[in-house]
Amino acid sequence: MRTILGAFTLSACLLSGAAWAAPSGVFEAGIRNGALVAGPVGGPLAVVAQGGGARGLPCYSPDGTRIAFTQSAGRGVAVADVVVVTLDGRELSRAAIEPVQPGVAYTGMQYVEGLRWISNEKLAVRGSINPAQSQYYVIDVVHAKVVSDFVDDGSVAAFSPGGDHVARLGDAPHYVPDADRVPSLLLDEKPIWQPGRGAVLAAAPSFSPDGASLAWAERDTSGKPALNIFSSGTLHHVKLPASSTGTLAVTWAGSRAVVTDAPEGKPGRVLAWSVDSGSAGLTAQVAIDPFQEAHGLLATLRRTTQGNGAKESDFWCKSCALASLPRGDL
Amino acid sequence: MIVLDSGQDDAIRARAALPFAALCGAGIMAMLATPAAAQTGGTPTPHLSLKRTSLTTGDATGHPDGGSFSYTTEVQSGSTIGTLTSQDTTSNPNQMIMAGPANPSGQGRPSPGGLGRYTATYTVNGTSASPPNDDPFSIPVFGMSCYYTTYESDWGTPPNMCQSVLINGTTYSGTVTDPYGYAGTFCNSFIAEVKLQGSGVTSGNTDIQYNAGKIVAVSTINGADGSPVVADQTVAWDRSIIAGRGKHVSVDNVGNDLLANDTGGAIRGYRLDLYRGAGAAVCANAANVMGVSACTPRSATCPGYAFP
Question: What does the domain layout of chain A look like in residue ranges?
């Protein structure tokens, strides 16, 4: 049996605040034969960390000075370790996810399935419990402590920049039939949206860059989409064109919430709203994916580095289009 | 040059490349304006047909004889795709062998697969039947994961052998009697888990469900589409990858005609979550392989449907 009690055993955190010089150019971090390798795209990849259990999910920090990854801890010990190292391989922190403790039953993730940097000092960790629900942890790698530990009923949890606020879906356990679910969107554990029976979250919540607003999309019982923006304690509800029948995603471009039915770089349409004057209104309709350039660059990088022996590669650059994407995938 | 053909024989046929030039005058050839009538230096343009013979094999048949086959692959969508190989590229028909990749995590951690875009080429005397990037075919690879319903015995035995658990910041230990209106004494940790996930199975093999503040016995535990989840048959899938309901998926080294009747936000991309039954033990040694797949019934909402 594994345990959730004392879920994190953080080693002495060596983060000293020292300034690490950010590299220039485009860099790749990947896994080769269980070791973490990294280097400039197109050049040789050097071993950054090796030995011990197999590694996975490499992920550059936003400033490019650190790399987080998972390391197998042995199933009888813990689900996995989450490790942060400098570019030259110095270990900054190590968190054991779900260490085993006698007399304590295990619940939660079976594997660490995703990592995302919330800031240069905080990491979010996700693993699924069942097809709908996921367990999340937030690790403060500077102060060696867990900021939060929770279950999200839709695996859609969002974190404000810096990690001060968390939004998650609750009250919708997986094995409750759709028709009986009455989900709640919780902001810092307080419900801010309860759509009623049959309505569904159509796009995961997303915080604005300043962390002051939260946007998400819903579909009512007839499938009609709408955008919700929660800002300054007020919920703004904006009906979306009924023709938005595809998969929706909500992001932000400055102070504007952006809804796209073309997530992941697929062709589609982008609509943008703002709440600049206290009420939400349509400010722009554009026909391109705001992240098209980033998605295109990512696809090109994956294609050009294919065959170099590194798996699960993450790419980082200081000022290219990739900077518009979140650091890591939850 | 391969053109997808929805003919009844399920074959994917190359455009006809019969030696029409030997039969027709030049004027007629110009009017046809089709690759079917193309000819190079007096050599008949090769003809290539493809047919899937099993989940992991297919036949490429080239005409006329004497040529060789080659294959290329690229990621069409998703992240990780399979391989397409042939042991002898000059045998005709040429057996294509499709294989899923190893799980890149190397740790059993679920990894999504992808949709592979494949191009087959048949070359005779320097003339090819499949120009690059023209009418390739696609084969999906799904990465597997495993899920289960919580089982009472995983949480200890009431009244004195219950294990504790921490969920969303609250520790649950000891026993609870008649929880949420359901008669009996249970480990508090088990009931907390039932409330968390919405269902569970008692040691007496009764399916129970938590909903709206009550726990009740139910005849079945249902997936997201409202039908019962069935051990080793139900898979949860991403509706953006396989749209609609009533789909079945076959996955190499996993099973045939798995029922896609569950879904959820944690299952993204080319990943399938296989329901294995009750109790953590059923998933303890899950290999979470990545397998060449096919989905039925054939339709545009099944990835790789043109090469089923």
Answer: 1-13+26-152+292-330
